[in-house]
Amino acid sequence: MGQWAGYLQLILDGAVVTIKLTLMGSALALVMAFLAGLGRLSRFAPVRWLATAYIEFFRGTSIFVQLFWAYFVLPLFGFTLTPLQAGVLALGLNVGAYAAEVVRGAIKSIGKEQYEACTALNFNRWQGLRHVILPQAFVLMLPTFGNNAIELLKASAVVSLISLSDMTFQAQVVRAQTGSTLFPFLTILILYFAIACVISFAIRGLERHLTRGLDGIRS
Amino acid sequence: MPPTNTAPIIEINGINKSFGAFKVLNDLSFSVAPREKLALIGPSGSGKTTILRILMTLEGIDSGEILVDGDSLYQMKRNGKLQPADDAHLHKMREKIGMVFQLFNLFPHKCVLDNVTLAPMLTKGVSRKDADHHAMELLDMVGLADKAKSMPSQLSGGQKQRVAIARALALKPKIMLFDEVTSALDPELVEEVLNVLWKLCRETDMTMLLVTHEMGFAHDFADRVLFFDRGRIVEDGKPDEIFRHPKQERTQAFLKKIIAAGHRV
Fold first, then answer.
1. Cβ–Cβ of B154/A213 closer than 8 Å?
2. Beta-ladder partners of B235
3. Mutation to test the A interface, candidates B105, B124, B209, most A Cβ within 10 Å
């Protein structure tokens, strides 16, 4: 039994890496989602093209290939990243591309009458967006952002391929050392599920908090 | 009664507006004197709401000219030449105009007080303290001081509309546009909103344009009534002339229909 405790510790160390990747990747994804989502709604055509190109490219190519580019190809151009940096970059850009469409869709779903009230009250575009449209749209984005964050958590397993010792990587180490498949993979199955549950609950709590007293803008 | 010897605050000269193939406004011209209370009536689709939306810069015009307080609404002078208005020009022009919508358009995520204070704080740099103070005066005027901390979803339609009126007044516009502000209300809630309009009519010297189907109220409220049909003004006169002795056949037919539908004239 004592040896399993040691191996469990190994997997828990991996879980810390996975959680770090998920948090940092989600933060980058959130920034990219708003940049590209708002970019697609810009009045300036080049900004729209740039945002569209980013979204289509990162949705249209595999996360696996993106990660290998970040870690193995970028050094050829003089950008060397640590495995963690490469992982955060690939995951954040990939999931951010999906989430950008969530941002755009939520903003577009806010009724015309809210924009008209902003015009009638003489807000400029940014003031209307910041104080009227985004606070309402953000509530609509949350459930899908939760999905995106869980997708990111699960996709983070690919970093084991660039030798980053995340949960999946550690499970393979344990399997190689003990010959047991059941113990490490059952353990990480439960851990992935537990982390996903935490994300779900956190998002739901935030949603409840933000919709207090609100009516009519919940989907 | 509005004085007759001053320059008009709104001058509309030959404007045209189409939505696709549908011509909403057809070579329309009229002017409004400062402090005048104007009622715009007519069948739906006659273009009366579109005029308010154009004045609020929610819709552009295809051709023609609009002057508000002597300045062109949709054009500006730059280097001596007239050019289409930019954001800064529209921003300056909108300061003179406020609008209340049929469906209130309150901000559902902000409490009543914040709905009223947001615009003065953002667009005029008023401090939170001053904005709150002025907003409470306005909410008191519309009879909703006790609802300041309520969310819009907790209010009735009539209360929402009164908040929307206070919100528009908070920017102290010279011109107020009221677009069918009682049409979405249950009949028993109409009066509380009309009472507020009545108060504004008597106690302020704002210019007010009112699009309405409340003919009885339009009669009492307005200095002047414009009857619209198919994007043109068919009849323009004092309330008594329009409602009691309409000259045009189309005005007569419209009023007959309205009376048949149970509205008091």
1. yes
2. B227
3. B105
Q: Count of residues for chain B?
A: 265
| Closest-approach residue (CA) in chain B for A115 | B105
Q: How far is CA A116 from each of CA A9, A168, B35, rounded to the nearest angstrom? A: 58, 51, 25
Indicate the burial class of B68 (C-beta count within 10 angstroms; 0-12, 13-18, 19 or more).
buried
Q: Where are the beta strands (DSSP E) in chain B?
A: 10-19, 22-32, 37-41, 63-68, 71-72, 75-78, 81-84, 97-100, 175-179, 207-211, 224-229, 232-237
Q: How far apart are CA B26 and CA B63, in angstroms?
A: 10
Q: Determine the residue type at B120.
A: P
Binning pLDDT at 50, 70 and 90, where does residue B2 land?
A: low
- Contact, A63 vs A155, CB < 8 A? yes
A86-142 residue pLDDT tens = 999 999 999 999 999 999 999 999 999 999 999 999 999 999 999 999 999 999 999
- ipTM exceeding cut-off 0.90 for this assembly: yes
pTM of this prediction? Answer: 0.88
CA separation for the pair B165, B142 (Å, rounded): 8
CATH code of A2-210, in short, is: 1.10.3720.10
CA distance A64 to chain B (A): 41
